[in-house]
Amino acid sequence: MENVVARRRTELLLVLALSLGQSAVYSIVDIVAKLTRGPLSGQTTALNTQASPRAWLDITYQLLGIFFALVIVGMAYHLLGRDPGRPRLVLGLTPRRLGFDFGGGALLAAVIGLPGLAFYYFAVWLGINTEISTSGLRQAWWAVPILILSAIQNAILEEVIVVGYMITRLRQMKWSVPATIAASSILRGSYHLYQGFGGFLGNVVMGVVFSLVFLRWRRVGPLIVAHSLLDIVAFVGYQLFLS
């Protein structure tokens, strides 16, 4: 039994080190850099930035980034297939409750989105968060599709890895429900620290809500839908505002 627990722990740490755990480490370094540079409220954090001044290279890099970010999701899915097996059921990725996934996801997005936006402006006003520029792409025909794909990729990566996969592994290792929720939520907040402490706190709260939803219904579908909608509105709305 101890060997099984050790194997699961090692596997979890490796998956996180290759994905969002690595992002959390870089995010911590980034917030330290920002704090030593000056007040957070006077700084801007840019998301979805241009990868090359040449358009065809830019879209190529954007698509490659989206593709390789999803490879780690495939690996986590494969690992869940080995232990405990039947990963579609473990993650709730079955077609039998698609209405619940889309309806519940839309409701989650509405419940989280407006308070989240208000909290963002409050955090900037308090000086504990940077201003967020959610799109730095050129004005091109492919900008909006890329932003939509990026939003969906973010949602799949985060909800499958930090909720579906991580919670499954921690519960297999006999972590308590409160400790599991705390670990998943704090990790989510940590890899958003680059935005500031407001981004950290807001995402911790989001992580608690999403973890509870997954533990109650055992489906990542509503979480992916909600996360996708939130990011699409933020990314595409900013891009259209600039045009």
Describe the structure.
By secondary structure, this protein is an all-alpha fold. The chain has one domain (2-242). The protein has 9 helices and 2 strands. Helix 6 packs across helix 8 (197-217). The radius of gyration is 18 Å and the shape is globular.
Give the neighbour order of strands across the main sheet: 1-2
As for the number of domains, it is 1
Number of helices: 9
Characterize the main sheet.
2 strands, parallel
Rg from Cα: 18 Å
Order of helices and strands: HHEHHHEHHHH
End-to-end separation in angstroms reads 58 Å
Helix content: over 70%
- Report the sheet-strand fraction: under 5%
Uncertain runs are none
Classify the oligomer. single chain
Number of strands: 2
Give the mean pLDDT: 95
Spatial shape: globular
Structural class: mainly alpha
Pick out its properties.
globular; 243 residues; 75% helix
Show the helix and strand layout.
Elements: H1 2-17, H2 20-37, E1 44-46, H3 55-82, H4 87-91, H5 98-126, E2 131-133, H6 143-172, H7 177-190, H8 197-217, H9 221-242
Parallel strand pairs: 1-2
Q: Summary?
A:
The chain has helices at 2-17, 20-37, 55-82, 87-91, 98-126, 143-172, 177-190, 197-217, 221-242; strands spanning 44-46, 131-133. By secondary structure, it is mostly helical.
